[in-house]
Design goal:
It is flat and about 70 Å long. Helices cover 55% and strands 19% of the residues. A hairpin with a 4-residue loop joins strand 9 and strand 10. Helix 6 packs antiparallel against helix 7, helix 7 packs antiparallel against helix 8 and helix 10 packs antiparallel against helix 11. The chain is an alpha+beta fold.
């Protein structure tokens, strides 16, 4: 019996000590985790966060919290999904907070040189908020940082079409000139006069009221020995108070025999430039047009519109002849994208200039009969003389 007891006592003691150590370890582990002394393993952390996001409600406050968390992870697709869900709510304060967080994050990425990340976030955000001027300006800055100047220019002109705050319009103008001359410098450095010509041809169409672009266009045309085209470009801006004198001096140099006045030859080449009166409408201009034997139409000049727009009421006027194509097209308006029918006018006339078979979209507009788009204007050289309130047209 004594031998049996002597064998069992150490065994029992070992079991008791083992149980006590195990209990003590478990208690300490729970206390330490509860107090935050030890973090969960990475795998468990990820799992916990994923469950939190997947089970999150559509309550606006919860959506804002998830946007904050997802921005920290650079999970931009999910950020935009939740931002779009938040937009459905009527809590404008939370929507504004989410917008501020998104744009601040994009700006931080931009400053850090993380252009790809900033671009991904901003492009997604602009799908949800197309008319957000601050976001589009940031996106233009991203392309500028990537030295993709041509895309930056496109973004700035798209921004100009939706911006209305004077301070934003001033920023757009300054930034556009900076980026344009960056691209022009690149073309000149590479001896690419064709690229330079294309750049300023595009700019004179996008911004036909900016006389300096016509001077740059003439310089590019002269670099390619197209003197006649340069003369027309310069003649369009002769009356401009800022560049008119420079245009006259450049024209005079093309005719060495002329010292103080333009030669008869130059004048004869530019007499077909017609000035058509314009009337202001805010920052834009209205021009009178006609179609067939219709009454005069008041069309807003819109170089951002690929095709001309007229209202349904215009088509009801006597003397207007048109064809129904059966086609429709999506048009971007102040109220978002709208699908509308496309017709063909037999003709459209502005001043003495007429274009046959003009495609037009048919949309309801306020305060005007339509928009004069590029499918009419592209047939001409044109300059919007803001100071004289004239549309100056000549043969293309």
């Amino acid at each position: 019996m004594r031998k049996l007891i002597s064998v069992l006592m150490p065994l029992a003691t070992g079991l008791i000590l083992g149980w006590f150590a195990h209990s003590l370890y478990n208690n300490n582990s729970v206390q330490q985790n509860a107090s935050g002394t030890f973090a969960l393993p990475p795998a468990e952390q990820t799992s916990t966060a994923t469950i939190t996001l997947s089970n999150i409600s559509n309550h606006p406050a919860d959506l804002l919290d998830s946007i904050t968390l997802l921005l920290q992870r650079n999970a931009y697709v999910e950020v935009i999904e939740r931002y779009e869900s938040l937009q459905v709510s009527s809590d404008h304060s939370l929507i504004q907070q989410a917008r501020s967080q998104i744009l601040e994050h994009a700006q931080q990425q931009l400053k850090a040189g993380n252009f790809v990340a900033a671009k991904q976030l901003l492009q997604g955000f602009l799908v949800a908020s197309y008319r957000d001027s601050d976001a589009r300006m940031l996106l233009a800055d991203v392309y500028l940082g990537q030295q993709d100047y041509l895309t930056a220019i496109e973004q700035l002109y798209e921004l100009k079409g939706i911006a209305f705050r004077p301070e934003m319009l001033a920023r757009i103008k300054q930034r556009t000139q900076h980026v344009v001359y960056k691209q022009a410098e690149r073309y000149r450095k590479n001896g690419d006069n064709t690229g330079l010509l294309s750049l300023f041809q595009n700019l004179t169409q996008k911004e036909p009221d900016h006389a300096s672009w016509f001077i740059e266009l003439a310089i590019a045309q002269l670099a390619l020995d197209d003197t006649e085209a340069a003369q027309y470009s310069l003649a369009l801006v002769l009356s401009d108070p800022y560049v008119g004198e420079q245009a006259q001096l450049m024209l005079a140099k093309l005719q060495p025999q002329t010292s103080t006045e333009l030669s008869a030859d130059i004048m004869s080449q530019t007499t077909d430039i017609t000035g058509i009166p314009l009337s202001r409408m805010g920052q834009s201009f209205l021009v009178e047009a006609s179609s067939g034997n219709s009454n005069n139409l008041q069309l807003l000049i819109d170089t951002g519109a690929s095709i001309t727009i007229v209202t349904p009421e215009v088509l009801q006027q006597q003397g207007i002849h048109f064809q129904i194509t059966g086609n429709t097209r999506v048009f971007n308006t102040a109220n978002g994208a709208v699908r509308a029918p496309v017709y063909i006018l037999d003709s459209l006339t502005v001043g003495d200039w007429r274009v046959e078979q003009v495609e037009v979209g048919v949309l309801e507009l306020k305060g005007m009969d339509g928009l004069l788009g590029m499918n009419f204007l592209k047939h001409f050289r044109f300059f919007i003389d803001q100071h004289a309130s004239m549309l100056r047209l000549s043969h293309n």
